[in-house]
Amino acid sequence: MKAVRLLEYGGQLVFNDVPTPTIARDEILVKIKSTAVNHLDLVKASGTARQILPIDLPWIPGHEFSGVVEQIGSDVAAYAPGDAVFGTSDMGAYAEYLAVKPAVIVRKPSNLSFEEAASVPVASQTAWQGIFTHGHLEKGQTILIHGGAGAVGAYSVQLASHAGATVIATASGDDEAYLNSIGASQVIDYREAQFEKVLREKVDVVFDLIGGDIQKRSFLVLKEGGHLVAATQPVSQEEAARHRVSGVMMRLAPSADVLGRIARLLEEGTIRPDVATVYALQDAAQAWKDITGNLPGVHGMSPSGPGAARRTSHGKIVLRVDA
Ligand SMILES: NC(=O)c1ccc[n+]([C@@H]2O[C@H](COP(=O)([O-])OP(=O)(O)OC[C@H]3O[C@@H](n4cnc5c(N)ncnc54)[C@H](OP(=O)(O)O)[C@@H]3O)[C@@H](O)[C@H]2O)c1
């Protein structure tokens, strides 16, 4: 099969032939239709975080996909060849075929294209687990989402709003109308204002998708007993205790149960995906160049803040594997 691989840390992506995976009795072989680009792909490939995020080289990137079941192992009962599915993987989705366990896939919502479906699993499940599992967000509460127009942020805004919370998001001012259209009641332009000076009342939950100074300042706007959930860096437990809040750095734990609930919300049109650009799989290197300019100022990879360059649109970058 054709696949995109990284041969050495920090190296170029190469597109060539590799052996097609074989499946165990409890696995499914999926013919990939589309995959999507995540910051994590680039972070792992750079090697800067190899102590906590090691990869075996040569490495096929790709943490999410949509596709069609090609073959099932003898112990698999829930799926049959021809089923359209989507889901997550530890790696390997930048390829024509992928072997997965049934526990990480779900049937693709019929109203989503394969390209849209591939953009969903990582961002939406991160949003769900960030705001509900770790943030314990409830109806009637207020949440502040840093990076609200990003891939994870946009699902967080939609899910929190659907859950009956008041949603405040920080984002570039250009994204205000978009964020209002998906459920944010207030948008704070991070390039123009400091959120702690703009907010009139303290919030119950902060979901921090940016980190650094943003995280430190977030303690100032949390109610006592509130929750700070960070997706990009650990939270100081001393600071959390001092402000009488909980602080946790989350790590996505993919779950077919959560993705199944998200699939139902997508199918009924309650939430919607956001695809920015679609590239062919062999153009993955170009897609990575695009997202590099889009990385928030985390992982030491790219600056963000007043004066920093911004990407042209919100939404995920998708790689089309098989039209
Ligand atoms: N822990 C986990 O399990 C997990 C899982 C998934 C993702 N993540 C991490 O979560 C982060 C967000 O991921 P993503 O896919 O949503 O990224 P994304 O789609 O690139 O979105 C980032 C957003 O942040 C905005 N932004 C940049 N600087 C900002 C600031 N100072 N204040 C407010 N907004 C700012 C950007 O807006 P402009 O472009 O307008 O500047 C952009 O809309 C990444 O670091 C990713 O690695 C963690």
Task: Describe this entry's structure for a reader.
It is a single chain. Helix 3 (121-134) packs across helix 4 (151-162). This protein has helices at residues 39-46, 114-118, 121-134, 151-162, 176-181, 195-198, 213-218, 237-242, 256-267, 284-292, and strands at 2-6, 13-17, 28-36, 64-72, 84-88, 97-100, 105-107, 142-146, 166-171, 186-189, 203-208, 222-230, 246-249, 275-280, 316-320. The strands form three sheets. Strands 3, 4, 5, 6, 7, 14 and 15 form a seven-stranded mixed sheet that branches. The chain has a six-stranded parallel sheet with strand order 10-9-8-11-12-13. It contains ten helices and 15 strands. The chain is an alpha/beta fold and 323 residues long. Helices cover 25% and strands 26% of the residues. The protein binds NADP nicotinamide-adenine-dinucleotide phosphate. NADP nicotinamide-adenine-dinucleotide phosphate binds next to helix 1, helix 3, helix 4 and strand 9.
